[in-house]
Design goal:
Distance between the termini: 61 Å
Strand order of the largest sheet: 5-4-7-6
Helix content: 25-40%
Radius of gyration: 22 Å
Shape: globular
CATH class of the largest domain: Alpha Beta
CATH topology of the largest domain: Ribosomal protein S3 C-terminal domain
CATH architecture of the largest domain: 2-Layer Sandwich
Strand content: 25-35%
Number of strands: 7
Number of helices: 7
């Protein structure tokens, strides 16, 4: 019974996060976190453009709060906005931005958009980054294009737990296009990032003691 309730809550949280993601299109949305507090449910939205999410006079927040109460049954939901200070190092924001640019400038510009986005991530200090655009782009056949730079592990602990990932999808009459972004931030400490200690120096210190 307990396991079932936990599973139901996780499914509900997932649906809420997907709803928020769909509602906040092209506002620098990164992720949403849901936390139960003594006062009710706290929803934290991470975005590079908090002003657009809040809306004029808090209109957008009021609308989101009403939906969370009426459609998802959250009791006294409190929405907070956390600003992303480094959007060029957030893979979800980059994926959203690429999707927006493809919609605006068309599929024929996908290479320029991909290379430029990759360069922005690397200039921001990313250890490694990769952009994958797949779908009917630029022709009628399904293709996959990758733009990558730096050092980005593809498997193992680092790839599974430390590499940030983002995904966006565009739906056109000709078919869908998926955008995946993977990024390793410069402040992430990986297992292979260690410092060797000079044995001679350690020996001398011990003698002095």
């Amino acid at each position: 019974m307990i396991e079932r309730k936990i599973l139901e809550q996780k499914v509900k949280d997932y649906k809420i996060k997907e709803f928020i993601r769909d509602e906040l299109d092209n506002v620098g949305f990164s992720r949403a976190e849901i936390e139960k507090t003594p006062l009710g449910m706290k929803v934290t939205i991470h975005s590079s453009k908090p002003g657009l999410i809040v809306g004029k006079g808090g209109a957008n927040i009021k609308s989101l709060t009403r939906v969370l109460e009426e459609e998802f049954g959250l009791k006294n939901p409190q929405i907070e906005i956390e600003e992303i200070k480094e959007p060029e190092l957030d893979p979800q924001i980059i994926a959203e931005r690429i999707a927006y640019q493809l919609k605006r400038f068309g599929k024929s510009r996908f290479k320029a958009i991909g290379y430029k986005s990759l360069q922005r991530m690397m200039n921001a200090g990313a250890v490694g980054a990769e952009i994958t655009i797949s779908g009917r782009i630029p022709g009628k056949r399904h293709n996959t294009w990758r733009f990558k730079a730096g050092r980005l592990p593809k498997n193992g602990f680092v790839a599974d737990n430390l590499v940030g990932k983002g995904f966006e999808e565009i739906h056109w009459n000709q078919g869908s296009v998926g955008i995946k972004v993977a990024l390793l931030r410069p402040d992430v400490k990986t297992p292979d990032n260690f410092k060797l200690i000079n044995e001679v120096e350690v020996s001398n210190d011990n003698k002095e003691e």
